[in-house]
Amino acid sequence: MTETTLGLFTIFVLSVFVGFEVISKVSSVLHTPLMSGANAIHGVILIGSIIILGTGHGAAQITLGFIAVVLATINAVGGFVVTDRMLEMFKGRGRK
Amino acid sequence: MNRAQAIELVYLFCAVCFIVALKGLSSPRSARTGNLIGAVGMIVAVGATFATPGLHRIALIVVALVIGTAVGVPAARAVKMTAIPQMVAAFNGVGGGAAALVSLAEFDRGHASFGTAAAVLFSTLIGAVSFTGSAITFLKLQELMTGRPVVLPRQRELNVGLAVTATAFIVWGLSDRSVTAAVLLALVAGVMGVLFVLPVGGADVPVVISLLNSFTGLAVAATGAVLRTTLLIVAGTLVGASGTLLTRMMSQAMGRPLSNTLFGALTATASTAAAVEDGGDRSVRTGTVDDVAVLLAYAQRVVVVPGYGLAVAQAQHTIRELADLLESRGVEVIYGIHPVAGRMPGHMNVLLAEANVPYEQLREMDDVNPQLPLTDVVLVVGANDVVNPAARDSPGSPIYGMPILNVDEARAVVFLKRSMRPGFAGIDNALLYDPKTTMLFGDAKDTLTALVAAVKTA
Questions:
Q1: Residues B134, B128: contact at Cβ < 8 Å?
Q2: Which chain B residues have a beta carbon less than 8 Å from that of A3?
Q3: Counting runs of H as helices and runs of E as strands, what totals does chain B give?
Q4: How far is residue A76's CA from residue A53's CA, in Å, rounded to a whole number?
Q5: Angle at B351 between CA B336 and CA B36, to 5 degrees
Q6: I want to staple B391 with a disulfide (CB 3.0 to 4.6 A). Which of B166, B286, B402, B406 is the partner?
Q7: In chain B, what are the domains?
Q8: How confident is the model over B48-76, as pLDDT tens digits?
Q9: How close does chain B come to A3, measured CA to CA in Å?
Q10: For B152-194, how does the pLDDT look when each residue is reduced to its tens digit (9 = 90+)?
Q11: Alpha carbon of B267 to those of B350, B391, B426: distances in Å?
Q12: Residue B277: pLDDT above 80?
């Protein structure tokens, strides 16, 4: 195992705990927006898609990269917009 | 500090944004800001990526970004609040697909170490399952196909066969670093995704969306390992971990273990029919709008139990009008929200918030249940399974064990329903035949409008 791999693995394990910790207490009122927001965040695959499209070689890689960028953009942009629409409805009223 | 390091630093900032975003989304006060912080993180991350050394085809990338935005934004803006779950499923599916494609393309470049090959195959497998699985959930929720569990003949044998085939492709891909093996794995995984979701009944589909959401997160994290991009690892793992937790919370709200939700149909016995045994006195009492209006107008306390039928009829504004009218007459009105009312946990709160129903009137199930024996009238609008006493009393019922609103303890129950058709879970409801139950058939919005008029004159 190289040093980089070990570093990445460390980041992975720590992220698992952060992920658990950060949403441990959520009212069921917010389950749907939270799921939708998390859904938008994994749209970060867009970064990987851009790198593939921008540095790939040959028709196969470029085609895959192009499709990936389109799909990932839909995921990220659509995800944040739809979450915001949901949350907009909670604004301006009494809260616990 | 060189450029690559600077980009890494910016990515670290974005990772923090995503963590803060998730944290913000878990409290009503900060949810909207949280989402915006996440969006900022995403935009900054994309901007930084454009500075990647050796990045070509900028124009093509921009074109792809524009196409994606042109598809995603109008879809997200136009979607009705009732159709949110399938929209989330669709966005989740394309994300999983993108993760699988990125891994495949990176694998195609060659020089993969054993660990990288393993990550590629993992992300391909999970990404493809998430893609086709989400597609099926979309079809089910959009009612383009049946919401009932579908089990293919000999599906168990088929599942085992697919798992063996997938394992073979994984071994082949690992030993030969074969791109062909990875592509074949993606195809097999696609079929697995379909077969995974087909046996899940309509009411349980939201749990599956949440699970597939965390799958996509893990696929993204694995792709991050392939590309050695820490931001992908952090963000993907965050979603994977929090999604798993959220899936468990949802399952708990349904009152059943996750395995039952996912594989219940595969292991089900023929006990489903047992609930419909008391064939004797099965008459239903149909009331008139005026009867119900009087019942409501002279009640002390009314509990409204809204369900998906209310949302479908777009009747959330009319129910608020009725509630306001009753309150002006001194009737106490509260809404009893079952955790899985609508099609997703919290879905009903979103819908009622859209109609400006005061937040204080929305009560969770555990708050409402103790008050039900002291309630004069329960108005069940387009809900069925969440008030079905079979979940409490009939061990043979498929929904047995799901926590319900005990509306049968109230003095009177009024059901607003389109027909006698059973609910989303497809189970008969004995409460409909109870002597203290009154049925008002028809479109929820029309019936409520008539009720508003009748209460005014009552």
A1: no
A2: none
A3: 17, 6
A4: 17
A5: 120
A6: B402
A7: 79-267 (no CATH), 284-457 (3.40.50.1220)
A8: 999 999 999 999 999 999 999 999 999 99
A9: 12
A10: 888 889 999 999 999 999 999 999 999 999 999 999 999 999 9
A11: 35, 19, 18
A12: no
Q: Are B210 and B170 in contact (CB under 8 A)?
A: no
Give the residue from B26, B123, B179, B214 with the most A CB atoms within 10 Å of its CB, the best one to mutate.
B26
Is B385 annotated in the active site?
yes
Interface test with B, best of A1, A39, A88 (most B CBs within 10 A): A39
Contact A52 B106 (CB under 8 A): yes
How far apart are the CA of B422 and the nearest CA of chain A, in angstroms?
25
Q: Which residues of chain A lie closer than 8 angstroms to B101, CB-CB?
A: 49, 64-65, 67-68, 71
Q: Which of B281, B366, B367, B385 is catalytic?
A: B385
- For the sheet with B377-381, list strands across it: B362-364, B332-337, B301-306, B377-381, B412-417, B437-441
Residue A11 has what pLDDT? 94
Cβ-nearest to B60 among A51, A60, A66: A66
A88: nearest CA in chain B?
B32
* Bridge partners, B417 (sequence order): B441
Amino acid identity of residue B73, one-letter, is V
Whole-number average pLDDT of chain B? 88
Residue appearing with tokens 């931001």: B231
Residue the block writes with tokens 């079809």: B139
pLDDT digits (tens, 9 = 90+) for B300-348: 999 999 988 887 778 888 999 999 999 999 999 999 988 777 777 777 8
- Report the range of poorest mean pLDDT among A30-34, A46-50, B40-44: A30-34
Q: Report the gap between the CA of A59 and the closest CA in chain B (Å).
A: 10
